[in-house]
Amino acid sequence: MNVREAAAALLGTVSERSPLSEDWPGLDVDTAYAIQDEALRLRRARGETLVGLKLGLTSRAKQQRMGIDSPLLAWLTDAMVLPAGVPVPSLIHPRAEPELVFVLGRRLAGPGVTAATALAAVDRVYGGIEVIDSRYTDYRFTLPDAVADNGSSAYFSVGPVGLPPSSLDLSLEAALLEVDGQIVDTATGAAVQGHPAEALALAANALGARGLALEPGWLVLTGGMTDAVPVRPGSRVAAHFSHLGSITLSS
Predict the structure, then answer these.
(1) Cβ neighbours of residue 57 under 8 Å, at least 6 residues apart?
(2) pLDDT tens digit string along 200-249?
(3) Whose CA is closest to 109, among 210, 220, 204?
(4) Local structure of residue 89 (DSSP, 8 states)
(5) 211-214 LR contacts (CB < 8 Å, sep 24+)
(6) Cα angle 231, 17, 203; round to 5
């Protein structure tokens, strides 16, 4: 299997499959990012538009479970946008998590980006919900598997309230995660690398090492604030933010 074959195989997967690393012994993170980039090229060839970037595995607890010390990056396209009121499409085993979402006002390029310089490039902050959906059976994968699978990306929805970052204490911005009317988890922005601006800086620097940058107008999903919860048929998942409004998804 080569990079192009792996990207096409993952994009064509509509049911659970074994981790890619089982078919590709020695698969490493750099090769996995090459697979991710090739999958993006295939998505764009079929008409999708690149709209931004997401970070995954940003919480310390998730990193410890995976045995890593930094998040992963993945691409976002317009086909992943889930408009308000639209039910979550049929997926393999979807899960949802609340996120803080940045919209960039100017280009942000590493290396050397700090949390302060990253935040200065942000135009607006929104609340959001990301729907993840690993192609791998039971969400069982290595880090290279997750990177190649574009960070288990499926869909995301952005809330109705956008505020300048200077008007918020993002480390204290809270989210309540509700499933079918019951609050099941809560967290603040501090759960994301200590502060979501740290996650944004990390993304800019990691892209800079690959000769890339975050571009004006891009959305950046900074990572799940809580653990992801299953999105079961007929269920309703909502995220309620302190200052950024509420988002509700149904399936």
Answers:
(1) 63, 66, 68, 71, 72, 146, 223
(2) 999 999 999 999 999 999 999 999 999 899 999 999 999 999 999 999 99
(3) 204
(4) P
(5) 213/107, 213/108, 213/109, 213/110, 214/52, 214/53, 214/104, 214/107, 214/108, 214/109, 214/121
(6) 65
